[in-house]
Protein backbone atom coordinates (compact mmCIF):
# COMPACT_ATOMS: atom_id res chain seq x y z
CA UNK A 1 0.00 0.00 0.00
CA UNK A 2 1.22 3.53 -0.79
CA UNK A 3 1.55 5.92 2.12
CA UNK A 4 -1.91 6.37 3.66
CA UNK A 5 -3.76 9.65 3.33
CA UNK A 6 -4.31 11.28 6.72
CA UNK A 7 -7.49 13.19 7.50
CA UNK A 8 -7.91 15.29 10.64
CA UNK A 9 -11.42 15.62 12.07
CA UNK A 10 -12.80 17.71 14.89
CA UNK A 11 -16.34 16.40 14.50
CA UNK A 12 -17.85 12.96 14.08
CA UNK A 13 -20.87 11.78 12.14
CA UNK A 14 -22.64 8.46 11.62
CA UNK A 15 -20.44 7.77 8.58
CA UNK A 16 -17.33 7.88 10.75
CA UNK A 17 -19.01 5.69 13.39
CA UNK A 18 -19.73 3.09 10.66
CA UNK A 19 -16.17 3.25 9.31
CA UNK A 20 -14.63 2.84 12.77
CA UNK A 21 -17.04 0.00 13.61
CA UNK A 22 -15.96 -1.81 10.45
CA UNK A 23 -12.28 -1.25 11.25
CA UNK A 24 -12.79 -2.62 14.77
CA UNK A 25 -14.51 -5.74 13.38
CA UNK A 26 -11.49 -6.35 11.16
CA UNK A 27 -9.12 -5.82 14.08
CA UNK A 28 -11.15 -8.20 16.24
CA UNK A 29 -11.10 -10.86 13.52
CA UNK A 30 -7.32 -10.62 13.09
CA UNK A 31 -6.17 -10.02 16.66
CA UNK A 32 -9.07 -11.06 18.85
CA UNK A 33 -9.04 -7.72 20.70
CA UNK A 34 -11.60 -4.94 20.52
CA UNK A 35 -9.16 -2.20 19.46
CA UNK A 36 -10.75 0.81 21.19
CA UNK A 37 -11.87 1.03 24.80
CA UNK A 38 -15.41 1.60 25.99
CA UNK A 39 -14.60 5.24 26.85
CA UNK A 40 -13.40 6.10 23.32
CA UNK A 41 -16.43 4.41 21.75
CA UNK A 42 -18.76 6.28 24.08
CA UNK A 43 -17.06 9.57 23.10
CA UNK A 44 -17.25 8.72 19.38
CA UNK A 45 -20.97 7.97 19.57
CA UNK A 46 -21.48 11.06 21.74
CA UNK A 47 -19.64 13.30 19.26
CA UNK A 48 -21.65 11.90 16.35
CA UNK A 49 -24.84 12.96 18.12
CA UNK A 50 -23.54 16.41 19.03
CA UNK A 51 -22.62 15.61 22.66
CA UNK A 52 -19.28 15.73 24.44
CA UNK A 53 -16.91 18.61 24.90
CA UNK A 54 -13.79 17.51 23.04
CA UNK A 55 -13.24 15.40 19.94
CA UNK A 56 -10.23 15.15 17.67
CA UNK A 57 -9.49 12.26 15.35
CA UNK A 58 -7.01 11.36 12.66
CA UNK A 59 -8.07 8.79 10.08
CA UNK A 60 -5.56 6.99 7.86
CA UNK A 61 -7.02 5.75 4.59
CA UNK A 62 -5.69 3.48 1.87
CA UNK A 63 -5.16 5.92 -1.05
CA UNK A 64 -6.25 3.27 -3.57
CA UNK A 65 -9.79 2.74 -2.23
CA UNK A 66 -10.24 5.21 0.63
CA UNK A 67 -10.76 2.41 3.16
CA UNK A 68 -10.00 3.28 6.79
CA UNK A 69 -6.84 1.37 7.77
CA UNK A 70 -5.94 3.11 11.02
CA UNK A 71 -7.57 5.56 13.38
CA UNK A 72 -6.56 7.73 16.35
CA UNK A 73 -8.97 9.59 18.62
CA UNK A 74 -8.59 12.15 21.39
CA UNK A 75 -11.46 13.05 23.73
CA UNK A 76 -12.02 14.01 27.35
CA UNK A 77 -14.51 11.27 28.23
CA UNK A 78 -13.90 9.91 31.76
CA UNK A 79 -11.15 11.63 33.67
CA UNK A 80 -11.59 15.39 33.61
CA UNK A 81 -7.96 16.27 34.24
CA UNK A 82 -6.65 14.54 31.09
CA UNK A 83 -7.61 14.13 27.48
CA UNK A 84 -7.30 10.52 26.35
CA UNK A 85 -5.86 9.19 23.11
CA UNK A 86 -5.98 5.70 21.62
CA UNK A 87 -5.03 4.41 18.22
CA UNK A 88 -5.95 1.33 16.28
CA UNK A 89 -4.43 -0.18 13.13
CA UNK A 90 -5.99 -2.90 10.99
CA UNK A 91 -2.89 -4.85 9.99
CA UNK A 92 -0.25 -6.47 12.16
CA UNK A 93 2.79 -6.38 9.88
CA UNK A 94 5.74 -3.98 9.89
CA UNK A 95 3.79 -1.39 7.92
CA UNK A 96 1.29 -1.21 10.81
CA UNK A 97 4.10 -0.14 13.13
CA UNK A 98 5.14 2.64 10.80
CA UNK A 99 1.53 3.67 10.45
CA UNK A 100 1.10 3.78 14.22
CA UNK A 101 4.20 6.01 14.46
CA UNK A 102 2.80 8.41 11.87
CA UNK A 103 -0.67 8.42 13.39
CA UNK A 104 0.45 9.07 16.96
CA UNK A 105 2.85 11.75 15.80
CA UNK A 106 0.07 13.40 13.83
CA UNK A 107 -2.62 13.26 16.52
CA UNK A 108 -0.28 14.67 19.19
CA UNK A 109 0.76 17.50 16.84
CA UNK A 110 -2.91 18.27 16.10
CA UNK A 111 -3.70 18.20 19.81
CA UNK A 112 -0.88 20.71 20.39
CA UNK A 113 -2.14 22.87 17.52
CA UNK A 114 -5.58 22.89 19.16
CA UNK A 115 -4.15 24.16 22.46
CA UNK A 116 -2.42 21.09 23.96
CA UNK A 117 -2.64 20.12 27.62
CA UNK A 118 -2.31 16.94 29.67
CA UNK A 119 -2.76 13.91 27.41
CA UNK A 120 -3.02 10.24 28.35
CA UNK A 121 -2.26 7.49 25.84
CA UNK A 122 -3.84 4.06 26.40
CA UNK A 123 -2.28 0.98 24.81
CA UNK A 124 -3.87 -2.45 25.06
CA UNK A 125 -1.40 -5.27 25.73
CA UNK A 126 1.70 -3.10 25.11
CA UNK A 127 4.89 -4.43 23.57
CA UNK A 128 8.38 -2.95 23.86
CA UNK A 129 7.81 -1.09 20.57
CA UNK A 130 4.75 0.65 22.10
CA UNK A 131 6.86 1.84 25.04
CA UNK A 132 9.48 3.03 22.55
CA UNK A 133 6.94 4.87 20.37
CA UNK A 134 5.39 6.62 23.37
CA UNK A 135 8.76 7.52 24.83
CA UNK A 136 10.07 8.91 21.53
CA UNK A 137 7.29 11.53 21.65
CA UNK A 138 7.95 12.37 25.30
CA UNK A 139 5.26 10.25 26.99
CA UNK A 140 6.14 8.58 30.30
CA UNK A 141 4.54 5.41 31.67
CA UNK A 142 1.75 6.26 34.12
CA UNK A 143 0.20 2.96 35.22
CA UNK A 144 -0.63 -0.60 34.26
CA UNK A 145 -4.21 -1.78 34.17
CA UNK A 146 -4.36 -5.54 34.72
CA UNK A 147 -7.17 -7.69 33.36
CA UNK A 148 -7.82 -10.56 35.77
CA UNK A 149 -10.06 -13.54 35.07
CA UNK A 150 -11.48 -16.36 37.16
CA UNK A 151 -13.56 -19.45 36.61
CA UNK A 152 -17.20 -19.30 37.69
CA UNK A 153 -18.91 -20.35 39.81
CA UNK A 154 -16.52 -19.75 42.69
CA UNK A 155 -15.94 -22.67 45.00
CA UNK A 156 -18.38 -22.72 47.90
CA UNK A 157 -16.97 -21.36 51.15
CA UNK A 158 -18.09 -22.14 54.66
CA UNK A 159 -15.93 -19.74 56.63
CA UNK A 160 -16.12 -16.46 54.65
CA UNK A 161 -17.82 -13.60 56.42
CA UNK A 162 -21.35 -13.27 55.15
CA UNK A 163 -23.74 -10.44 55.79
CA UNK A 164 -24.92 -10.28 59.40
CA UNK A 165 -28.43 -9.35 60.56
CA UNK A 166 -27.77 -5.61 60.11
CA UNK A 167 -26.35 -6.11 56.62
CA UNK A 168 -28.24 -6.54 53.38
CA UNK A 169 -27.14 -7.15 49.82
CA UNK A 170 -29.73 -6.10 47.30
CA UNK A 171 -30.05 -4.81 43.72
CA UNK A 172 -29.43 -1.12 43.00
CA UNK A 173 -32.63 0.95 42.95
CA UNK A 174 -32.71 3.27 39.92
CA UNK A 175 -34.02 6.71 40.89
CA UNK A 176 -33.33 6.16 44.62
CA UNK A 177 -29.74 5.01 45.21
CA UNK A 178 -27.80 7.39 42.97
CA UNK A 179 -26.80 10.06 45.51
CA UNK A 180 -25.87 7.60 48.27
CA UNK A 181 -23.93 5.49 45.78
CA UNK A 182 -22.05 8.55 44.45
CA UNK A 183 -20.99 9.53 47.97
CA UNK A 184 -19.71 6.05 48.91
CA UNK A 185 -18.07 5.44 45.54
CA UNK A 186 -16.38 8.84 45.26
CA UNK A 187 -15.08 8.50 48.82
CA UNK A 188 -13.67 5.04 48.07
CA UNK A 189 -12.12 6.16 44.77
CA UNK A 190 -10.97 9.60 46.02
CA UNK A 191 -7.45 9.00 44.66
CA UNK A 192 -8.54 7.47 41.38
CA UNK A 193 -8.25 9.61 38.20
CA UNK A 194 -11.29 8.16 36.35
CA UNK A 195 -13.61 6.78 38.99
CA UNK A 196 -13.32 9.27 41.83
CA UNK A 197 -15.22 12.16 40.28
CA UNK A 198 -18.52 10.76 39.09
CA UNK A 199 -21.61 12.91 39.29
CA UNK A 200 -25.30 12.32 38.68
CA UNK A 201 -24.96 12.75 34.92
CA UNK A 202 -22.23 10.07 34.77
CA UNK A 203 -24.27 7.45 36.57
CA UNK A 204 -27.51 8.32 34.76
CA UNK A 205 -25.68 7.95 31.43
CA UNK A 206 -24.53 4.46 32.49
CA UNK A 207 -28.08 3.56 33.49
CA UNK A 208 -29.10 4.27 29.88
CA UNK A 209 -26.43 1.92 28.44
CA UNK A 210 -27.93 -1.19 26.82
CA UNK A 211 -25.94 -3.50 29.10
CA UNK A 212 -27.11 -1.86 32.33
CA UNK A 213 -28.96 -4.26 34.63
CA UNK A 214 -29.89 -3.05 38.11
CA UNK A 215 -30.13 -6.68 39.33
CA UNK A 216 -26.43 -7.16 38.58
CA UNK A 217 -25.54 -3.97 40.47
CA UNK A 218 -25.27 -5.43 43.96
CA UNK A 219 -25.50 -2.92 46.80
CA UNK A 220 -24.40 -3.42 50.42
CA UNK A 221 -26.48 -1.73 53.11
CA UNK A 222 -25.20 -1.56 56.68
CA UNK A 223 -27.77 -0.40 59.23
CA UNK A 224 -29.91 0.86 56.38
CA UNK A 225 -27.12 2.96 54.82
CA UNK A 226 -25.46 2.24 51.48
CA UNK A 227 -21.90 1.22 52.37
CA UNK A 228 -20.58 -0.38 49.20
CA UNK A 229 -21.43 -1.98 45.89
CA UNK A 230 -20.36 -4.47 43.25
CA UNK A 231 -21.54 -3.44 39.79
CA UNK A 232 -21.37 -6.12 37.15
CA UNK A 233 -21.54 -6.02 33.36
CA UNK A 234 -22.16 -8.98 31.08
CA UNK A 235 -20.14 -9.32 27.86
CA UNK A 236 -22.35 -11.92 26.18
CA UNK A 237 -20.60 -11.61 22.80
CA UNK A 238 -16.99 -11.83 23.94
CA UNK A 239 -15.06 -15.05 23.46
CA UNK A 240 -15.50 -16.54 25.99
CA UNK A 241 -18.62 -14.76 27.26
CA UNK A 242 -17.55 -12.89 30.38
CA UNK A 243 -19.10 -11.40 33.47
CA UNK A 244 -17.18 -8.30 34.50
CA UNK A 245 -16.93 -6.66 37.88
CA UNK A 246 -17.34 -3.22 36.34
CA UNK A 247 -16.89 -1.22 39.54
CA UNK A 248 -16.57 -2.28 43.14
CA UNK A 249 -16.10 -0.17 46.22
CA UNK A 250 -16.58 -0.12 49.96
CA UNK A 251 -16.97 3.17 51.81
CA UNK A 252 -13.62 3.85 53.59
CA UNK A 253 -15.42 3.88 56.97
CA UNK A 254 -15.96 0.13 56.49
CA UNK A 255 -12.67 -0.94 54.90
CA UNK A 256 -10.81 -3.96 56.20
CA UNK A 257 -13.89 -5.61 57.72
CA UNK A 258 -14.48 -8.24 55.06
CA UNK A 259 -17.15 -6.38 53.07
CA UNK A 260 -15.04 -6.18 49.90
CA UNK A 261 -14.80 -9.95 49.88
CA UNK A 262 -18.56 -10.32 50.53
CA UNK A 263 -19.37 -7.92 47.68
CA UNK A 264 -16.95 -9.55 45.22
CA UNK A 265 -18.57 -12.90 45.93
CA UNK A 266 -22.07 -11.40 45.63
CA UNK A 267 -21.24 -9.98 42.18
CA UNK A 268 -19.57 -13.16 40.96
CA UNK A 269 -22.35 -15.39 42.30
CA UNK A 270 -24.90 -13.25 40.47
CA UNK A 271 -22.88 -13.55 37.24
CA UNK A 272 -22.62 -17.33 37.68
CA UNK A 273 -26.40 -17.48 38.16
CA UNK A 274 -26.75 -15.80 34.76
CA UNK A 275 -24.82 -18.70 33.24
CA UNK A 276 -21.40 -17.00 32.93
CA UNK A 277 -18.39 -19.28 33.37
CA UNK A 278 -15.67 -16.62 33.26
CA UNK A 279 -15.37 -13.69 35.66
CA UNK A 280 -13.26 -10.71 34.62
CA UNK A 281 -12.21 -7.32 35.94
CA UNK A 282 -9.66 -4.58 35.41
CA UNK A 283 -7.54 -3.42 38.31
CA UNK A 284 -4.74 -0.91 38.66
CA UNK A 285 -1.55 -2.95 39.09
CA UNK A 286 -0.58 -0.72 42.04
CA UNK A 287 -3.87 -1.29 43.91
CA UNK A 288 -2.43 -3.68 46.49
CA UNK A 289 -5.65 -4.14 48.48
CA UNK A 290 -7.77 -5.02 45.45
CA UNK A 291 -5.06 -7.18 43.82
CA UNK A 292 -4.63 -9.20 46.96
CA UNK A 293 -8.41 -9.58 47.40
CA UNK A 294 -8.95 -10.81 43.84
CA UNK A 295 -5.98 -13.17 43.80
CA UNK A 296 -7.14 -14.72 47.06
CA UNK A 297 -10.51 -15.38 45.40
CA UNK A 298 -9.02 -17.25 42.44
CA UNK A 299 -8.42 -14.51 39.86
CA UNK A 300 -5.25 -14.59 37.76
CA UNK A 301 -3.76 -12.22 35.17
CA UNK A 302 -4.98 -12.48 31.59
CA UNK A 303 -3.16 -9.42 30.21
CA UNK A 304 -2.01 -5.89 30.99
CA UNK A 305 -2.94 -2.58 29.36
CA UNK A 306 -0.83 0.54 29.93
CA UNK A 307 -1.29 4.28 30.12
CA UNK A 308 1.33 6.91 29.30
CA UNK A 309 1.09 10.63 29.98
CA UNK A 310 2.53 13.82 28.52
CA UNK A 311 1.85 17.54 28.87
CA UNK A 312 1.56 18.71 25.27
CA UNK A 313 2.65 22.34 24.77
CA UNK A 314 0.23 24.78 23.19
CA UNK A 315 1.60 25.04 19.64
CA UNK A 316 -0.44 28.18 19.01
CA UNK A 317 2.02 30.06 21.23
CA UNK A 318 5.11 28.77 19.43
C1 LIG B 1 -10.70 -2.98 47.29
C2 LIG B 1 -11.78 -2.81 48.37
C3 LIG B 1 -13.15 -2.99 47.70
C4 LIG B 1 -11.58 -3.89 49.43
O1 LIG B 1 -12.64 -3.73 50.36
P1 LIG B 1 -12.46 -4.09 51.93
O2 LIG B 1 -13.82 -4.24 52.49
O3 LIG B 1 -11.56 -3.11 52.55
O4 LIG B 1 -11.72 -5.50 51.82
P2 LIG B 1 -11.90 -6.73 52.83
O5 LIG B 1 -11.90 -6.25 54.22
O6 LIG B 1 -13.05 -7.56 52.38
O7 LIG B 1 -10.56 -7.51 52.56
C5 LIG B 1 -10.53 -8.56 51.64
C6 LIG B 1 -9.08 -8.82 51.24
O8 LIG B 1 -8.57 -7.69 50.54
C7 LIG B 1 -7.19 -7.57 50.83
N1 LIG B 1 -6.98 -6.29 51.46
C8 LIG B 1 -7.92 -5.44 51.94
N2 LIG B 1 -7.34 -4.32 52.38
C9 LIG B 1 -6.01 -4.46 52.17
C10 LIG B 1 -4.90 -3.63 52.38
N3 LIG B 1 -5.02 -2.41 52.90
N4 LIG B 1 -3.67 -4.10 52.01
C11 LIG B 1 -3.54 -5.31 51.44
N5 LIG B 1 -4.58 -6.15 51.23
C12 LIG B 1 -5.79 -5.73 51.58
C13 LIG B 1 -6.82 -8.72 51.73
O9 LIG B 1 -6.44 -9.80 50.90
C14 LIG B 1 -8.14 -9.03 52.39
O10 LIG B 1 -8.22 -10.34 52.79
P3 LIG B 1 -7.83 -10.74 54.30
O11 LIG B 1 -8.62 -9.82 55.20
O12 LIG B 1 -8.26 -12.17 54.39
O13 LIG B 1 -6.37 -10.53 54.41
C15 LIG B 1 -11.68 -1.43 49.08
O14 LIG B 1 -10.34 -1.26 49.51
C16 LIG B 1 -12.05 -0.24 48.21
O15 LIG B 1 -13.22 0.15 48.13
N6 LIG B 1 -11.05 0.36 47.58
C17 LIG B 1 -11.28 1.56 46.74
C18 LIG B 1 -11.97 1.20 45.45
C19 LIG B 1 -11.17 0.19 44.69
O16 LIG B 1 -9.96 0.25 44.59
N7 LIG B 1 -11.89 -0.79 44.08
C20 LIG B 1 -11.28 -1.83 43.30
C21 LIG B 1 -11.06 -1.36 41.91
S1 LIG B 1 -10.68 -2.71 40.85
**Helical segment count:** 8
Name of the CATH class of the largest domain? Alpha Beta
CATH architect. name of the largest domain: 3-Layer(aba) Sandwich
Unreliable stretches covering 5 or more consecutive residues: none
Please, how many domains?
Answer: 2
Number of strands: 12
CA distance, first residue to last residue: 35 Å
Annotated CATH topology of the largest domain: Aminopeptidase
**Strand proportion:** 25-35%
Using the CA coordinates, give the radius of gyration: 21 Å
Largest sheet composition: 12 strands, mixed
Provide the list of bound ligands, each named once: coenzyme A
- Strand and helix order: EHHEEEHEHEEHHEEEHEHE
User: What's the overall geometry?
Assistant: globular
Strand order of the largest sheet: 1-2-3-4-5-12-6-11-10-9-8-7
Q: What structural category do the secondary elements indicate?
A: alpha+beta
Outline the structure in words.
By secondary structure, the protein is of the alpha+beta class. The protein folds into two domains: 5-138, Aminopeptidase; 149-304, 3-Layer(aba) Sandwich (Aminopeptidase), CATH 3.40.630.30. 32% of the residues lie in helices and 31% in strands. It is built from eight helices and twelve strands. It has helices at 14-31, 38-48, 94-113, 128-136, 178-188, 200-207, 259-273, 288-296; strands at 5-9, 55-61, 68-75, 83-89, 117-123, 140-151, 167-171, 217-222, 225-235, 242-250, 278-284, 300-312. Strands 1-2-3-4-5-12-6-11-10-9-8-7 form a twelve-stranded mixed β-sheet, sandwiched between helices. A hairpin with a 6-residue loop joins strand 2 (55-61) and strand 3. The longest helix is centred in the first third of the chain and has 20 residues, at 94-113. The protein is globular. The protein starts with a strand and ends in a 6-residue tail after the last strand. The site of coenzyme A has 21 residues, from strand 10, helix 7, strand 11 and helix 8.
